[in-house]
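I'm curious: can you give me some protein's one-letter sequence along with its backbone structure tokens because I've never seen that pairing?
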Amino acid sequence: MKFLRLAFYVLVAQLVLSGCAGEAVEETSSSSASEINFDAYVGRNASTRSGVTNITFLQDTLFNSGFGVFARYNYNGKILSLLDTEHVTWNKDQNHWAYTNTRFWPSNGTVDFYAFAPYNETVKMINPPGKAEPTYIWFPSYINPIDLVWANAKNKTKKDNPVKFTFNHALARFGFYITANNLTDGESITVQEVKLYCVSNNEHIGVFVMAGYLNLENGDWILDDNGTRWYYSWKPTGNDGEGPDVGKGPELKLDGDKLSNPNDIINNSPHSYIFIIPQEKREPFYLEITYTVERPGQSSQKVTVKKNLLDVLRKPGTNYCMFEEGKAYDFHLKLSPNPIHSRVTTNAKNWDVDVVNNVPCNQIGR
């Protein structure tokens, strides 16, 4: 499956939802003045597997461009459905937003709106197990590993037109970049692979819970651990998120392999971030890198170093770390020809503001 990458910048898109009311809803008019309109805003600097999801992405013709919209009409103590997983897309010929099941403002009562992106026709609002709150959607990131965003606009009437959606990032983003320190004349480092994994019985196992229920009311999550977890690998020859290798998760892509001077940088490919349902981590999990040191006139040296990221991310005096929604976790792997001098640091930052935390760590052990 194609992994979608969302890189959001501040954007404004007026989405015009037009149509006729359901049987239980009294229409105010069939004129365009009564159509429900939306303004949509999303944050900057987010990313999904498909590339930039700005206004260009939203107005594209990809199967998941646009938004999914739910609308719930509150009338006389009852909640009626006006829209369910409605796909709002851009009409390039007529230069406006459109969808199939047109709706108008009711003459009485209020309407609650919920939205998500990228679009997926299978998404439904449901009650999670043990709760009578039908404002959740189930999200299996192992089936649809995207950067999910959500929004709502509550208690709206015609006087609130256009209804404003402000989209929020539902997930955490994981990425890294690699540089080389202490290179002497002629030395170079070639990176073969970066891995992310947990360990059980000396075997590599998956890292994160990959399913959960997202509440479109407030962005809260309920984890749904069905046992599916991936461990990850990045290589210069990786498939850039095209699909999982059965049993171990996706092999992703590095955007280069050679470090010849301190200014050289290797990143995970823009399509090879991973997105994490917000969750607590208490068990060790490792970032491991294998690289080869080349020295003029000498044989090459292959090196593998790793670091327990729990030690990097946990706060002093605690035994856990938390991956938070809306945060981008960018790890800096600083390699050295002498592996005992290799290090890793991380910046945990909001996707729409500057760095809020810079956490150094100890040396990476072999």
Remarks:
- The mean pLDDT is 80.
- The chain is about 0% helix and 45% strand.
- Residues 182 and 226 are 45 Å apart (CA to CA).
